[in-house]
Automatic annotation (TrEMBL):
Protein name: GDSL esterase/lipase
PANTHER family registered for this protein in UniProt: OS04G0650200 PROTEIN, OSJNBB0059K02.9 PROTEIN
Alphabetic keyword roster: Hydrolase, Lipid degradation, Lipid metabolism, Signal
Transmembrane segments: none
Signal peptide: 1-19
Protein origin, superkingdom: Eukaryota
Family listed: Belongs to the 'GDSL' lipolytic enzyme family.
Amino acid sequence: MEKLIFSLFLALPLIFTEAHVPGGGFTKLFDFGDSYVDTGNGGRQATSWKKPYGIIFPGKPTGRYSDGRVFTDYIASWMGIRSPIPYRWRKMGKKVQGHGMNFAYGGTGVFDTLVKAPNMTTQINLFQQVLEEKLHTKRDLKSSIALVSLAGNDYAAYLAGNGTIQSLPAFTTSLIRQLSLNMKHIHGMGVRKVAIMAIQPLGCLPQVSALTSYPNCSVTGNSISKFHNQILEKSVQKLNKETKDSVYIKVDIYSAFTAAMKSQEHHPGAH
Ligand SMILES: *[C@@H]1O[C@H](CO)[C@@H](O)[C@H](O)[C@H]1NC(C)=O
Ligand SMILES: *[C@@H]1O[C@H](CO)[C@@H](O)[C@H](O)[C@H]1NC(C)=O
Ligand SMILES: *[C@@H]1O[C@H](CO)[C@@H](O)[C@H](O)[C@H]1NC(C)=O
């Protein structure tokens, strides 16, 4: 996993580089989202605090749902800053708050999901509280990026509940409507750039492809992702028309995942 994610990130800096400065001159990172970006907000009872999570980086479990780094760590590294501290550790002193803050909780969504943890709205409210406590100033926000990774768990909850494939397009539309409102809210609070992660090919997740004994990714699963990403793209374009400098950025992890899997396809066992 560490290797796979790493190769995805080799391509990523290109997406962000505007000014030709490493990290684009951004100095703070704020995360909102799920396990793709959570770096330890789950309590000690969370599975992310058990092995094999964390065995490659940093060598022991730290609350990340990965054996290594997660997206937050790579983006922070590209920005040339330390990974922002999880909200849970915010009382640890001013010094550790210098790089932004991570409000992401594994398993969460734009709406409520199967996991009882703060949804996107609540995560933004936590950010609002942190700003009111003056842990970060308006000036800090001018050089900040928000990284948003949400929606995957909303689909899991939708499909696990009574959601049908027929009414899925309507669900996607309402999901992205809420997501866009939330992203506008984050920008309205002063954050300079808001990067939203598209969703990965859901049909290639082992949990999904196991249902058909793995030989191929689920076509239905992937079409859910493609549809979501198309609507997201339109929504990002629309949001950018409302702002002077392109504030919103879609991070195309669908293509990144596909490319990484393709490069491995002649090496079975290396996945
Ligand atoms: C998010 O969670 C809060 C608190 O539990 C709840 O009041 C709110 O309705 C939820 N928002 C959405 C969009 O699901
Ligand atoms: C699904 O539908 C059934 C019957 O209409 C209802 O009893 C149940 O609460 C629903 N489940 C969810 C998760 O909405
Ligand atoms: C998997 O995909 C390959 C190539 O498209 C196809 O030939 C094969 O029949 C598929 N296998 C299953 C079980 O769907």
